Every structure is written in C-alpha cells, then in structure tokens.
C-alpha cells in the first residue's frame, strides 16, 4: 500500500515536471526574445545607401559633424580615412573616397563609419551595393619568355613585389592632393581596365590599370599632388613611378622610357614625372596608369570624374559617373 502511494506521488511530480518543461518550451517558441534576452544587432544601413560598379570610386559624405575630430570608415576590411572639406557657404563636412576593387564580389556590404569628437564616438552605418562591371576578355600574344617565367624570373618578380609592398606600407597620413585630377597622357584610352587576360592561351591576372596609347617619349604628368614613394625598374612594370597622394591613395605609371623624379620628391598635379616608353612587359610604347585606393584597385579614369573641381554642391549619396564599359574590340596593339 505504502509503496503504491509513493510511486503514485512520484509519478504525479514527474508528470508536473514534464508539464512545466512543456510550458517553458511552448512559451519560448512564442516569446523567444522575452525568455532569452539578447541584445539585437544594431540595424545596418540606417544612414544611407550608395551603389557603384566594380572598379569605381564612391564619394561618401558625412554631414552635420562640424565638431568631429576624426572620421574613419571600414568597408570589407579596408580602412577609409575621411577628410574635412570646406565649401563656400556650406558647413564643413567630412568626405571619404571609397574604392570598389575590380574583384569585389557583387552584393550589399556595410560601410561602418566612426565619428569621433574628442573622447566620444558615434557609429554610422551605410549600405553599399556593389554591382558587376562587364570587363572585356583580351587575348594577348607575347614572347614566351615574357609570359612563362623561369625560376630566376619568378624569384625576381617576388622580390620586386615585396619591395613595392614595403615602400607603400609607409603611406602619408595627410591628404596631399588639392586640385582636380589630371589625365597623365593625352592619348587613346584603351578601355581595358579590369579585363580578363588570356596570354598565349592561358588565363592570367586581370588588368589592374588603364593603358593609354601614346608616342615614345611623350610627357607623363602626375595626376595630382603627392610624394614619390618609390621609382622602380621591374620585370613587368618596367621603369615605374609610384606616387603617394596621402590617406592610402596611390597612383602608378609604368613602362616609362625615362623617369624624371626621385624617391621622396614632392610633386604637384600635372608635373612631368617621366616619358612614355615600352620597358618591362609591354608590346609597344604606352602608359600603364594604375590607382590604388586603400587597397582597392580602381579604374583611374573614375578620378577624372570626381566632383572636386569646382565649388559645385556635392549631391549625396553620389557615385562617380560610370565609365564607359570596357570595349571588347581590342584594336590597339600596345598594352600590359
Ligand atoms: Zn597595362
């Protein structure tokens, strides 16, 4: 008798337990947040949206932060330093140049911006839509030894890459450019930035700059003010100049026949820094003009479209106008 009563009591308790567990499970599925309090992630993209194609430069403006002491953005693990911009009759604002790398995958990404004012900081969040650019496919025929490198050439190329990387690690924290951007050579633009390259039948790295056809010895001008970070004579780029324009923004000029500046020289927009040539891996005289913006390889021609020329109001959000799509017809024999 006693045993049965105890068993029944146990049974009742365990049934009660089970019911309670059921109730918790049911409740938690109906009110998951209330029962398991979580801090929800901060909403993204609340402060605006930008869009652009692979290889473009976007102008991002942070308004109403006149008192800010530092503004920094982060986009796809790249740091975007903002700079103060004054326009007559307008409150000062902060502007950042966001480069979309030619190989960033299309999609929507966050641009997180931190606005610091002394000890205080606040976060802004923008959505950036990256659209696909239609890059051309190029078939190039080059002497076999210029494409299929032997061991010695590979070692040289690797050492040269390391040399450039080291030189560019030392970037100016100041914005060195002041005026509008200049086309370095007046010539025929080949429109092959970002093109997929098939050399002697084998796929190679995409073309990371723009080639401008010009006669041997033509003047090459710096696109803007800056400091010559390094001058080189490398296996692929030939005689080349790397200019640091500050805040992680570089321009480079390759295949020169002559270099007219030295490492460390301060130069101004339009200054002649070299002469067009065909040194390195080039099939004829032309300028290879490249631009890197905080690590992103962008189409240099988008710089010429940037709205920094006059005091005209910047409309925000704004993308630099789309450059013409790379043409598939490749009449010019000079490139690399
Ligand atoms: Zn090129």
Describe the protein in words.
By secondary structure, the protein is α+β, with helices and mostly antiparallel strands. 18% of the residues lie in helices and 36% in strands. Strands 10, 13, 15, 16, 17, 19, 21 and 22 form an 8-stranded antiparallel β-sheet that branches. It has 3 domains: 2-35; 49-131, Immunoglobulins (Immunoglobulin-like); 137-319, Glucose Permease (Domain IIA) (Distorted Sandwich). The structure holds zinc ion.
> Could you please say which CATH topology of the largest domain applies here?
Glucose Permease (Domain IIA)
Annotation, overall tally of beta strands = 23
CATH secondary-structure class of the largest domain: Mainly Beta
Helix content: 10-25%
- Share of β-strand residues: 35-45%
Given the structure, what is the number of helices? 5
Q: Separation of termini?
A: 98 Å
Taking all Cα atoms into account, the compactness measure Rg is 28 Å
Counting structural domains, the number is 3
H-E string: HHEEEEEEEEEHHEEEEEEEEEEEEEHE
Uncertain residue segments: 310-334
Shape: globular
Rounded mean pLDDT is 83
Characterize the largest beta sheet: strand count, sense, and whether it forms a barrel: 8 strands, antiparallel
Structural class: alpha+beta
Bound molecules: zinc ion
Give me the CATH superfamily of the largest domain: Glucose Permease (Domain IIA)
CATH architecture descriptor of the largest domain: Distorted Sandwich
């Amino acid at each position: 008798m006693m045993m049965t009563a105890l068993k029944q009591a146990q049974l009742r308790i365990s049934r009660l337990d089970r019911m309670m567990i059921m109730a918790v499970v049911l409740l938690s599925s109906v009110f998951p947040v209330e029962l398991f309090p979580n801090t929800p992630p901060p909403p993204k993209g609340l402060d605006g949206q930008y869009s652009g194609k692979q290889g473009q430069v976007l102008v991002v403006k942070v308004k109403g932060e006149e008192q800010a002491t530092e503004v920094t953005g982060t986009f796809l693990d790249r740091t975007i330093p903002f700079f103060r911009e004054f326009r007559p009759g307008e409150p000062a604002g902060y502007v950042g140049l966001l480069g979309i790398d030619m190989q960033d995958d299309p999609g929507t990404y966050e641009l997180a911006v931190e606005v610091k004012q002394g000890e205080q900081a606040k976060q802004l969040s923008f959505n950036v839509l990256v659209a696909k650019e239609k890059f051309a496919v190029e078939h190039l025929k080059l002497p076999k030894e210029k494409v299929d490198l032997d061991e010695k050439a590979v070692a040289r190329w690797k050492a040269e890459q390391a040399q450039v990387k080291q030189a560019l690690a030392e970037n100016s924290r100041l914005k060195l450019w002041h005026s509008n951007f200049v086309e370095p050579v007046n010539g025929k633009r080949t429109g092959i930035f970002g093109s997929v390259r098939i050399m002697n039948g084998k796929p190679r790295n995409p073309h990371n700059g723009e080639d401008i056809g010009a006669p041997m010895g033509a003047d090459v001008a710096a696109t803007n003010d800056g400091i010559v970070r390094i001058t080189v004579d490398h296996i692929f780029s030939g005689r080349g100049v790397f200019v640091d324009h500050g805040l992680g923004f570089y321009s480079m000029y390759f295949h020169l026949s002559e270099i007219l500046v030295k490492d460390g020289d301060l130069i101004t927009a339009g200054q002649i820094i070299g002469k067009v040539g065909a040194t390195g891996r080039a099939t004829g005289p032309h300028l290879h003009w490249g631009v890197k913006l905080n690590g992103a390889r962008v189409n240099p021609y988008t710089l010429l479209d940037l709205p920094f020329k006059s005091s005209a109001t910047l409309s925000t959000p704004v993308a630099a106008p789309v450059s013409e799509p790379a043409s598939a017809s490749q009449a010019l024999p000079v490139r690399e």
